[in-house]
Structures are given as C-alpha cells and as structure tokens.
C-alpha cells in the first residue's frame, strides 16, 4: 500500500508545477487552446493524487 504524501512533498510538487506553468506561459509565442488544455490536463495529473493524499492524511 502506498504511503500518503507528506506536507513538504505536496508543497514541493505544487511549486514545481507552478514553475512549469510560469515557464510555459511566459515563453510561449502565443497562448492558444492547446496550451490551455495542456495546462488543465497537467493540473489534473498533479493535483488529483495530491488531493487524494490530503484526504488520506486526515
């Protein structure tokens, strides 16, 4: 069985995802639908396990 993420791991993962989003949004020549879809999908892939881990911690 997998252990839930610690608070420091959750913060680190969230900050890394935010940094990636910042880089994508600032370096993109134009922000179109595909860029936004990519960011939404990446948010789901990052934050669904984080929310499950938070729920398991309680």
Could you describe the 3D structure shown?
- The protein is mainly α.
- It is built from two helices and no strands.
- Helix 1 (7-27) runs antiparallel to helix 2 (33-57).
Rough outline:
elongated
Structural class estimated from helices and strands = mainly alpha
Beta content: under 5%
* Major sheet: none
Count all strands and give the number.
0
Distance between the termini: 17 Å
Average predicted confidence as pLDDT: 91
Our Rg estimate from Cα atoms comes to: 14 Å
Give, in order, the helices and strands. HH
Indicate the percent of residues in helices: over 70%
Low-pLDDT runs of 5+ residues are none
Number of helices in the DSSP assignment: 2
């Amino acid at each position: 069985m997998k252990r839930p993420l610690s608070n420091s791991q959750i913060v680190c993962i969230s900050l890394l995802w935010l940094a990636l989003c910042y880089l994508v949004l600032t370096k993109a020549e134009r922000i179109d639908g595909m860029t936004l879809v990519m960011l939404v999908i990446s948010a789901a892939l990052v934050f669904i396990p984080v929310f499950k881990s938070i729920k398991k911690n309680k």
